[in-house]
Amino acid sequence: MLVLSRRPQESFRIGHDIVITVLEVSGDKVRIGIDAPSHVKVHRQEVYLEVQKANLEAASASPSAAADLAAAIRGTSAKPATDEPADESAAPEPEATDVDGKDVQGKDRPAS
Amino acid sequence: MTTAPRPQATELATIRLDEGLVGFPGTEHYSVIGGDGGVFELAPLDGDGPTFVTAVAGFFFPDYHPVLDDVTAQRLDLSDPDDALVLVIVTVGADISAAYGNLFAPVVVNTRTGAAEQVVLSGQDFPLRAPLVAAAAGR
Lengths: 112, 139
Description:
Number of helices of chain B: 3
Family (chain A): Belongs to the CsrA/RsmA family.
Structural class of chain A: alpha+beta
Protein name (chain A): Translational regulator CsrA
Radius of gyration of chain B: 14 Å
Main location (chain A): cytoplasm
Structural class of chain B: mainly beta
Keywords (chain A): Bacterial flagellum biogenesis, Cytoplasm, Repressor, RNA-binding, Translation regulation
Radius of gyration of chain A: 23 Å
Shape of chain B: globular
Oligomer: heterodimer
Strand order of the largest sheet of chain A: 1-2-3
Strand content of chain A: 15-25%
Number of strands of chain B: 9
Subcellular location (chain A): Cytoplasm
Shape of chain A: elongated
């Protein structure tokens, strides 16, 4: 691991276009600013590892998992999705309700 | 009576995740297969990644409204929310009734372009493990 010492407001650069700046040091907490291109996703390490672990667990499903799950869902649903698709409320659509259009455009980029 | 369109493999034949799924950066293209009961498989078309089971978020979790930050929306070229499809990755173990969906990091698809990304939604208080079959029963 490369180890560098920096004071508040000092930076270092990764490659050509990623700049990391130490903003503030207070007790045992350090605030960091990250300036990176939009295609570079920034995650807190522990968050990334949690999602990675969840994906690894999901990846170990059996080959019939999707079919088994669909069958189980049909068994629990009052309106089977395959046999009676006539009700619009029962049909899974690619729809806008999952993404709020106003908010899609309106928020700062949060570090995850 | 008009039947509402259900997402079919023919509609979402291939999606492209430029960065792959978290932990699986080597696979960028997935075939979206199925749709039975709102469940799709993401089958890898390149790389050596595994197949994932996913569920249409709005179908199982109607109160789930993830918000994309503007940078992510721009990466996906999602200017119109109508183009967005949110899939949650499902973990299916030996006990199907205990299957859960990952609402914390869904796969957001631009159905117009096929561009997709697993979006980590920190700060929005969504669970990493939300029971799926129970959600279906309560639909």
